[in-house]
Amino acid sequence: MNDSLISRRRLLQSALTGLAAVPAAALVAREAAAAPVLISEDDPAAKALAYLHDVKKVDAAANPTYKKGQICANCIQYTAGAGGEGTCNMFPGKLVKAQGWCKVWVQKPGTTL
Ligand code: SF4
């Protein structure tokens, strides 16, 4: 085996390694772009459901369906994520706070208030 054959082999290996890295980098970038973000309380969808990040701020008089102990974390629509936030089926692509609340809260089976 001569030097030119070895260097051609190394060049080919480097090229293949580089090609393999490109789709992985693109996938990571797409995942980051699609990562859900915390919904704003000013979002029209959040306002329509009277969503608040902090259940302590719920006006019980204005929201007669609210009962103490109801929070996103024990709502059937909630799937826990990281950092006290999770996804909600009512707000696709957005995160809500585990300690949040909105007026379509429904108790998750197996939870207690
Ligand atoms: S539907 Fe449930 S999880 Fe979603 S915002 Fe309302 S209370 Fe929270």
What does this structure look like?
The protein is 33% helix and 12% strand. It contains two helices and four strands. A four-stranded mixed sheet has the order 1-4-3-2, with no helix packed on it. The site of iron/sulfur cluster has 13 residues, from loops.
Report the biggest beta sheet as strand number plus sense, adding barrel if it closes.
4 strands, mixed
Counting helices, strands and paired strands, the structural category is alpha+beta
| Ligand set | iron/sulfur cluster
CATH superfamily of the largest domain: High potential iron-sulphur protein
Radius of gyration: 24 Å
Percent of sequence in beta strands: 5-15%
> Tell me, what is the CATH class of the largest domain?
Few Secondary Structures
Share of helix among residues?
25-40%
Total number of domains: 2
End-to-end gap: 75 Å
CATH topology of the largest domain: High-Potential Iron-Sulfur Protein, Chain A
Q: What's the total count of β strands?
A: 4
Architecture per CATH nomenclature, i.e. the level-2 architecture of the largest domain: Irregular
In one word, what is the shape?
Answer: elongated
Give start-end ranges of low-pLDDT stretches: none
Q: Helical stretch count?
A: 2
Name the features.
about 110 residues, alpha+beta, High-Potential Iron-Sulfur Protein, Chain A, 2 domains, four-stranded mixed sheet, 2 helices, about 35% helix, elongated, binds iron/sulfur cluster
Give the secondary structure arrangement, pairings included.
Blueprint (H helix, E strand, L loop, with lengths): L2 H32 L2 E2 L5 H5 L29 E3 L4 E4 L5 E4 L16
Parallel strand pairs: 1-4
Antiparallel strand pairs: 2-3, 3-4
Iron/sulfur cluster binds next to loops.
